[in-house]
Amino acid sequence: MPTNFLQTKKRKGEHLKIVLNKKVAFKEKTTGLEDVSFKEIELLYTAIPRVDKKKIDLRTAFFSKKFSAPLMVSGMTGGVAEAKKINKDIAKACEELGLGMGVGSQRAMIENPLLTETYFVRDVAPKIFIAGNIGAAQLEEYSCKQIQKAIDDIGADALAIHLNAAQEAVQKEGDTNFSNTYSLVKKTVKEIKKPVYVKEVGNGITFEVAKLLAKTGIKAIDVQGAGGTTWVGVESFRGNKDLGETFWDIGIPTTVSVMETRKAFNGPIIASGGIRTGLDVVKCIILGADLASMAYPVLKAQNKGGASGVKNFLEKIIEEARTAMFLVGAKNIKELKKKKFVLKGKTLEWAKQRKLV
Predict the structure, then answer these.
(1) Residue 332 pLDDT > 60, yes or no?
(2) Axis-axis angle for helices 3-21, 296-328 (nearest 10)
(3) d(CA 177, CA 196)
(4) CA-based R_g, the chain, Å
(5) Which among 126, 270, 283 has a CA at the least distance from the CA of 198?
(6) What is the CATH number for 27?
(7) Which residue of 192, 198, 273, 304 sits 20 to 30 Å from the alpha carbon of 262, by its own alpha carbon?
(8) Helix axis angle, 144-153 relative to 181-191, nearest 10°?
(9) What CA–CA distance (Å, rounded) separates 76 from 62?
(10) Distance of alpha carbon 265 from its chain centroid, rounded?
């Protein structure tokens, strides 16, 4: 068995254990969602929402796939035995609810095709949107033909290329050559026969990066901002503690990541990174996102209650989003996007300095 495969498998297993058992949230930096309030609420306009909560329509679409709500589960795992059940449980819940999901980095199954089953969920989720996943650092290592086969083998509707420079910089065996990332993303977009989008892994996207990415032809951006799980922190627990502690909180908060990306990019935006409630989902859509994505709380729900645990958790998020839409007087997602907001605290300071407002 190739050494790189054994390293990848070991690392995937360690990641799962650390995320489930250690405190891997940002320490000082938050998502910024606590700095967003609604103009209507402050002005009491919501005393008469003028909508029927029961008739609020949360439906939306992403890459021509229908979603019952603007919510998906971000790709987390694959490549180790326990990932098979995790991914299937999440897929079952998403299929029942009409939501999308992603899988973790498919590097492991490219290195060892026998691990494909740890990513494959089409047997329990034949209709929903599913995103494949490969790291930007691996685009030089694997051909587009190999990547195409990987996403085809799991029946994915799109490919997510994840940007994880901060994680790689702290990871003991990290791939830190990002000198050709722009050209490699552009090449991948051109050659892969499925929509390609880019996602961060918890450190956010700036206006400048979003503007650069727009030139590659990608179809969407998942900002995955700072404030939720820090993979720098995860790698710190794996053995690079000193470097990890120094850079633990590096990144752009989720709120301003959404705003910066929207200013530079006209395509669909996924807001992720510390999304914990349906109210967070609604805030992000008002700020400029089209969907919101969650990972850590879904993993915790699966770990505690399997597929039914995931379904119950996601149903709670959807109901919270519906309630938030009712309280701002939005009967559908189109109306929600037009709602105004006010900013305060650090988010307002950031927005002013970066001329986002």
Answers:
(1) yes
(2) 50
(3) 21
(4) 19
(5) 270
(6) 3.20.20.70
(7) 192
(8) 60
(9) 20
(10) 17
- pTM summary value: 0.91
Burial code (b: 16+ CB inside 10 Å, e: under 16) for 95-111 equals bbbbbbbbbbbbbbbbb
Q: Is the pLDDT of residue 180 over 60?
A: yes
Gap between the Cα atoms of 254 and 275, Å rounded: 9
Q: How confident is the model at residue 33 (pLDDT cuts 50, 70, 90)?
A: low
Amino acid at 218: I
pLDDT tens-digit map of 254-281 = 999 999 999 999 999 999 999 999 999 9
How long a stretch of residues is the chain? 357
Report whether 108 contacts 133 (CB < 8 A).
no
* Enclosing domain of residue 125: 3-353
User: What contacts 244, CB < 8 A, 6 or more positions away?
Assistant: 170, 232, 233, 235, 236, 237
What three-state secondary structure class fits 60? strand
Evaluate whether 210 touches 221 at the Cβ level (below 8 Å).
yes
pLDDT score for 39: 33
Which of 229, 324, 286 lies closest to 31 in space, CA to CA? Answer: 229
**Whole-number pLDDT of residue 172:** 85
Res. 75: pLDDT tops 50: yes
SS (H, E, C) 127-165: CCCEEEEEEHHHCCCCCHHHHHHHHHHCCCCEEEEEECH
User: What 3-state class would DSSP assign to 294?
Assistant: strand
Q: Strands of 11-79 (E only): list them.
A: 36-38, 60-62, 65-67, 71-73
242-256: pLDDT as tens digits: 898 999 899 999 999
* Count: domains in the chain: 1
Helix axes 254-264, 345-353, angle to 10 degrees: 30
